[in-house]
Design goal:
3 domains; Arc Repressor Mutant, subunit A; 10 strands; alpha+beta
C-alpha cells in the first residue's frame, strides 16, 4: 500500500536570470561593440536617454597599488586603495560628445597589431589545459578545421582520416576530444551547426533557469519558426510543452537570442582593428593607479519623464517592459565595470615587475589565480579578459596577454613562458652574428639562469617569435 507524505528538502541552486544573462553578455563585449550596443538601445528603448553635458557627474574610479619607493622588486604584499565607485547611483554612466571626441582621438593611437586569430586563441587555452600529447594533437587538428565563425567544417570521419597513419582513432574517441574543445572560450565554438552552437551556450546555465527547457527545445528544433516575425507558429509548436505559457515563451526566446550565433567572430578578425583601452594604468608617487577609461562608461540614464507617467497608472505594457529593460541594462553596466576593474587591479598587483622592467619579469599567472583572488569563477575571468585592453607605459595589451604557463626553476620558483620568450629574444639579439646560438646553446644559457628548458621547448618558443634557426641566421636569414 502506497502512503503519501510531505517532505521538506533544503538545497542550494544557482538560477541564471535573463538579467544575469545580459550582464554576462555585456561582460564579454569589447568596448567598441559595447558602445554600438548602447547606441542601438538608445534608438530602440524610449526609456533610455543620453545625458546632457551639464547633467554629467565626473566619474573617476581607481585602485592604487602601492609599493615601497626604495625597491621595485619587493616581495611584500601590495596595498590597494579603493576609491568610491558611484556609477550605480548617479544619473548615468558615460561621456558627452566632447569626451567622445577625445576618446576617438586617443583610440587612433592604439592599433591592435597582434591580430590574434581564433586558432591562436584556442591553442593558447589548450596549452594550459594539461592534455596528454595525443589528446593535444587531436584537439589541435579539430581547431584547424574551424572556420572564422568557430564552426567545425569537417566531419569526424574526415578528421579521423587526417590523423592517419599517426593515430588510428575512431569517431567516438575524436568526439570525446571535440567535447573538450567545445568547453573552450568562446562558448559555442567547435559546434557542427547553429543548433549545437546555441545549445552549448545554453548548457552553461543552471538547470533550473526559468525558460531554459523551452529555450533548448527552440534551439534544437524550432530555429526556423523563431526567425519568423510572427511567433504564432512557434507558439503552436510548443503549446504541448508543460509551462509553455506566453510569459515563459518570451523568457525562453530572450535566452536563445542572448546567445552568439557566430562565437568565433568574437575573437577572429580579418583585418587590423583599432582598439579602445578599457583600463589605464599609471605609475604615481604612491604606486600604480588603475582606472577605467572614460569610453567604458557610456553616460545613459532612465528617462524620468516617461517613468513618471507610468507611476500615475495606466496599461502601458510596452513602456513598462522597456523601463524594466532599461534598468537591467544600467545594472548590467554596473556589474561589467565593477568586474573589469577588479580583474585589472588583480592583474596589476601580480605584474608590477613587468610594468616596471619589461617582459623578462613577467610572472606566471593563470585564470585560476585571478579567479581565486577576487572570488569569481574562472569562466567569468575568461570572459572579462577577452577583447579587453589595458593601456600601460609599455604599450597597450589585451588582458589575456598577462596570462601564461610556467616553467619550474631550480630554485622552486616558476618562470612564465612570456618571460622565457623575452629572454630568448634578448639572447639572440645580443649574439655574435658569425656564431649564432643554437637551440641547445640557448637551453644551456637559460639553465645557467636557473630556468631548465628543453631544447625542443626553446625551438617552439623561438619559432613562435618568428625567429629563424641558427643555421638560417648564419646564412643571413631574418631574425
Amino acid at each position: 500500500m502506497l502512503k503519501q507524505s510531505l517532505q521538506l528538502k533544503l538545497g542550494q541552486s544557482l538560477t541564471m536570470t535573463p538579467q544575469l544573462q545580459q550582464a554576462i553578455r555585456l561582460l564579454q563585449m569589447p568596448t567598441l561593440e559595447l558602445q554600438a550596443h548602447i547606441n542601438e538601445m538608445l534608438e530602440t528603448n524610449v526609456m533610455l536617454e543620453q545625458e546632457e553635458p551639464e547633467d554629467e557627474v565626473e566619474l573617476t574610479t581607481n585602485f592604487t597599488v602601492s609599493e615601497p619607493t626604495e625597491s621595485i622588486e619587493t616581495t611584500e604584499p601590495v596595498e590597494v586603495e579603493v576609491v568610491d565607485q558611484p556609477w550605480a547611483d548617479q544619473a548615468g554612466t558615460g561621456s558627452d560628445g566632447a569626451r567622445a571626441e577625445d576618446d576617438e582621438d586617443r583610440t587612433r593611437e592604439f592599433a591592435d597589431e597582434r591580430e590574434q586569430s581564433l586558432r591562436d586563441h584556442l591553442l593558447g587555452q589548450l596549452e594550459l589545459a594539461g592534455l596528454s600529447d595525443t589528446d593535444l594533437t587531436v584537439a589541435t587538428t579539430i581547431v584547424d578545421t574551424l572556420n572564422d565563425d568557430g564552426y567545425l567544417t569537417e566531419t569526424l570521419a574526415e578528421i579521423a582520416a587526417t590523423l592517419r597513419p599517426d593515430l588510428e582513432w575512431d569517431e567516438e574517441e575524436i568526439e570525446r576530444v571535440l567535447m573538450l574543445v567545445q568547453t573552450l572560450d568562446p562558448i559555442g565554438v567547435a559546434a557542427r551547426n547553429l543548433a549545437e552552437c546555441l545549445s552549448l551556450q545554453l548548457a552553461q546555465l543552471a538547470p533550473d533557469t526559468p525558460g531554459l527547457a523551452l529555450a533548448r527545445r527552440i534551439a534544437e528544433h524550432h530555429l526556423d519558426q523563431l526567425a519568423l516575425r510572427d511567433h504564432g507558429p512557434l507558439r503552436r509548436a510548443l503549446e504541448s510543452m508543460q509551462g509553455a505559457d506566453e510569459e515563459m515563451l518570451e523568457v525562453a526566446i530572450a535566452l536563445v537570442r542572448s546567445c552568439h550565433p557566430r562565437p568565433g567572430a568574437i575573437v577572429s578578425s580579418t583585418r587590423a582593428e583599432y582598439v579602445v583601452p578599457d583600463v589605464f594604468v599609471r605609475r604615481t608617487s604612491r604606486g600604480w593607479t588603475v582606472e577605467l577609461a572614460p569610453g567604458t562608461l557610456p553616460r545613459i540614464r532612465v528617462n524620468q519623464s516617461y517613468a513618471g507617467m507610468l507611476g500615475r497608472g495606466g496599461a502601458h505594457t510596452m513602456l513598462r517592459t522597456q523601463l524594466q529593460e532599461a534598468r537591467w541594462l544600467l545594472k548590467s553596466l554596473e556589474i561589467r565595470n565593477d568586474t573589469l576593474l577588479k580583474v585589472a587591479r588583480a592583474i596589476v598587483e601580480r605584474q608590477t615587475e613587468f610594468l616596471a622592467q619589461g617582459e623578462e619579469h613577467m610572472r606566471p599567472m593563470i585564470l585560476k589565480d585571478i579567479a581565486s583572488a577576487i572570488e569569481m569563477h574562472e569562466s567569468t575571468i575568461s570572459r572579462v579578459t577577452s577583447g579587453k585592453y589595458m593601456h600601460t607605459s609599455r604599450g597597450v595589451f589585451e588582458l589575456r596577454y598577462f596570462f601564461s604557463s610556467q616553467v619550474e626553476g631550480d630554485d622552486g620558483q616558476g618562470t612564465s613562458s612570456t618571460a622565457i620568450r623575452a629572454k630568448i629574444r634578448k639572447l639572440i639579439r645580443d649574439e655574435d652574428p658569425a656564431q649564432p646560438l643554437s637551440d641547445n646553446r640557448l637551453a644551456e644559457l637559460l639553465s645557467n639562469e636557473g630556468i631548465p628548458v628543453a631544447r625542443r621547448t626553446v625551438a617552439k618558443y623561438r619559432e613562435s617569435l618568428g625567429i629563424a634557426s641558427s643555421a638560417d641566421r648564419k646564412r643571413g636569414g631574418a631574425r
